Amino acid sequence: MEDDLAAASAANEGRERDLAFAIDNLQRLEQFAGDQMRQPVIDRLNQWVQHERIPSDWEVDPALAGLPEPLGQLAEVRSLDKLLFLPYDGYALQEAIWLRDVSNWARGRQIDDLARAENLFDWVVRNIQLTPGTGRELDHLAQYPWETLLWGKGTAVDRAWVFILLLRQQGIDAVVLALPDPADPSGEKRVPWAVGVLKENEFYLFDPALGLPIPGPQGVKYEGNRLIIPPATLSALAKAPALLRKLDLPGHPYPVDASRLAGVAALVEASPAYLEARMKLVESQLVGDQHVVLTTSPSALIARLGEVAHLADRRLWTWPYEVLARRGQLTDEQREQIRMAMLPFEVRRDTPLWKGRVLHLKGVFTGFHNATYYYQRARPSKRALAAMKRRIAEEENRQRVPEMRERLEAQVRGKGDATYWLGLIAIVEGRPKAAFEYFTMRTWIKPWTQGAIYNLGRIVEDSGNPKEAAEIYRNAPPSPDSHGNLLRARWLDPAGATETRAKR
Predict the structure, then answer these.
(1) How far is the C-alpha of 119 from the C-alpha of 504, rounded, in Å?
(2) How many CA atoms lie within 13 A of 105 on its CB side?
(3) Which helix (H) or strand (E) holds 130?
(4) Which distant-in-sequence residues (6+ apart) come within 8 Å of 227 by Cβ?
(5) Using CB atoms within 10 A as the burial measure, which of 161, 228, 334, 345 is most buried?
(6) Rounded to an integer, what distance in angstroms lies between the CA atom of residue 222 and that of residue 464?
């Protein structure tokens, strides 16, 4: 009997060690490059979970019943009730940790949920450079939220997805608001429009393509060296749709009117990982500073939305499932696109860009080994880059040359990324002059020109020079965020030049 008890105790201690290993390493992913720790975490979780039972209060969420059949057959959907962690879960856990970390420092010190939502939306706009398209184009790489966070770029839909998940980590409900597609004669298809942040049965509206809250009846004002844009509610727009016309620019009307607004649908985000029994078990073990939101109940939120006025429909958002399906059918060109996007984070033995980026998302800006330290290490000197070029020119094994050139290109791109992200950190730290210097290093941040111009404008706004900021926005080259930039210019300097560069 004593031997049996000792064996059971040892087995239990082993399971606890497996769980502790997984949880501890999830909290310090900056110490490991890419996949280095993700699979060991999954392995340990699988050793732990094989002795667990599905929680008695867990069930497959009823909202999944409306999922189109091809998507319902995805492996990630069919395994919701399995106590076996998949590689997909490793990425989902990493993603949730990053979302928690960003939301905890980017939310600000406000207590009010709407104020926190405004701060998180502002973080998304300043940190995720807008790329063209909706993401639904067949030749477009459908991104996961963790990729959008890591790469710092994404479509309006990518921005919306990240924003909603950041809010979830703060216990704030939000949905994608979608409108009838003008190109669909049946009127059944919906296209994403804005994010609705739910507060007291009202949706407060944020447009990720504009990079702006949709202004309410109070209007917009520049006060205290900042542009104040109280977000409109869906009810306010339903009563006064003419408010939307204040978002028109000469020759570029805002593409929403009263007729489309009448068909607005609320799409509820619930990626498969948030519906898994095994994630519910892990979430129950995370307490205190380690707590991460890993579950959600779309059916409960859909039921709550029955009390929200002016909705023509409310249902599960299928886009996260469509992304999973598309990522299972990548073209060779798309696989190469992903590999090249990840390469700057993998070059060099100590992977400084990866470590800097994860620490940046974590909000670690002080101490010796902080985000700035690693970003600086990811910026090889001109002399070092010249030496690499010489080695390539002198390489006798010509078969190695393409790989060497590729890694040189990755280091050059990584230097540009690190330079731009150092500018964003300088803003957070209240060092506008340093941020200005990073954002004007045009040789290195050419891929980030659009984001650099926007953030330069914001720096000038905050310095109390609204007219100068307006000129920065007006003189920016056409880009996916031009419409929003020109609206900011109009509000900052109403008497300024007529907008001519809008391009939504």
Answers:
(1) 23
(2) 14
(3) strand 129-130
(4) 220, 221, 461, 466, 488, 491, 492
(5) 161
(6) 9
- Chain-centroid distance, C-alpha 475: 28
CA distances (Å), 352 to each of 185, 297, 348, 373, 389, in order?
52, 38, 8, 9, 21
- Tokens 């867990």 belong to 58
Is CATH 2.60.20.10 the classification given to domain 334-492?
A: no
- How far apart (Å, rounded) are the C-alpha atoms in residues 122 and 454? 12
Spatial distance between the Cα atoms of 276 and 293, rounded to a whole number of angstroms: 13
Question: Residue 226 forms beta bridges with which residues?
Answer: 223
Contacts of 254 (CB under 8 A, 6+ apart): 244, 245, 247, 248, 483
In the prediction, which pLDDT does 502 show?
46
3-state secondary structure of 427: helix
Vertex 489: Cα angle to 488 and 494 (nearest 5): 110
Mean pLDDT for each consecutive 10-residue tract of the chain (504 residues)?
Answer: 50 80 86 79 94 94 93 95 95 96 96 97 98 79 96 98 98 97 83 97 98 96 94 97 96 93 96 97 93 98 97 96 95 94 90 95 94 96 94 89 93 96 97 96 90 97 96 96 97 77 44
Q: What are phi and psi of 313, to 5 degrees?
A: -165, 160
Distance CA 253, CA 271 (A): 34
Integer Cα distance of 65 and 76 in angstroms: 15
CA angle 252, 448, 344 (to 5 degrees): 140
Where do runs of H (alpha helix) occur along 55-197?
69-72, 75-78, 87-106, 113-127, 145-151, 156-169
Owner of token pair 């791109």: 413
Note whether 404 and 454 are within 8 A (CB). Answer: no
